[in-house]
Fold this protein.
Amino acid sequence: MALSGMTGFARCEGVLGAWTWFVEARSVNGRNLETRFRGPPGFDGLERLAREAAQSRFQRGQLTVALQAKRADSAGAVRVNIEQLERYLDLAERYVRQGRATPPAMDGLYALRGVVEAADDTDEPDARAEIEAAMARTLAEAMDALKAARLEEGTALTPVLGGQVDRIEALIAQAETEAGGQTEAVKDRFARRLSELLDDRTNLDALVVQEAAVLAAKADVREELDRLTSHVAAARALVAGDAAAGRRLDFLSQEFMREANTLCSKSATIALTTIGLELKAVIEQFREQVANVE
């Protein structure tokens, strides 16, 4: 399985008898999988099928699936709703007996709402089931097309992420080179600080030891650089791997930033600080791209 993005769009159409329909499926970034479905009245079972189709294909993203259907008018095929007609007759009978109204004419009754309806063969359970099954197939086709669109986006993202990881690795190498100058910079800073402390000899030995320990710890960035290097290897493995990597890459980008922040805070030279700031900028770009990886 190649790297997959989380944004995409697909549209598929279907037809059966007098019915035509189309399905539009689109997705955007999301920390979890969320599916919203809109379908035609009377086909409520399609919502469950849409959610199952999404769960079987995707792990993350906000999906919107819309199915719109239209039935061509039958050529003059109508039916009389006898139950509705009887209700109108029952209501009119009382007023006729009281002399408050004349018996209703049939043409007037036929004009009342709900008495005459267009014939709909989908009222037959077998016919409706056949149409719903055909719509479900189109729904599955749209989901497959959406998955293909997201994979295509993932293919485009792969070299972008790889290039950013390469840049992070190059900056780590620069930081390793520059970190060699940390010791000399700290020595100079310690000498200046010691000169200031010599003006007050009270508790001088304890202050010297404390200051030396603080500055020595600040000079050591080997641990941060080692972690950053291991994160680079992990990022490359995830980008090239077969499993969905979005959540792990997102976590890794946070770890990248944590180490870069510590590197900057420990820096004793302007050059190393500059490298650390550029490293943070590239990591932020990496994080923004990772936000669209499934």
About this structure: Strands lie at 8-16, 19-28, 33-38, 61-71, 78-80, 116-118. The chain has a mean pLDDT of 86. Residues 270 and 276 are 10 Å apart (CA to CA). The two ends are 12 Å apart (CA to CA).
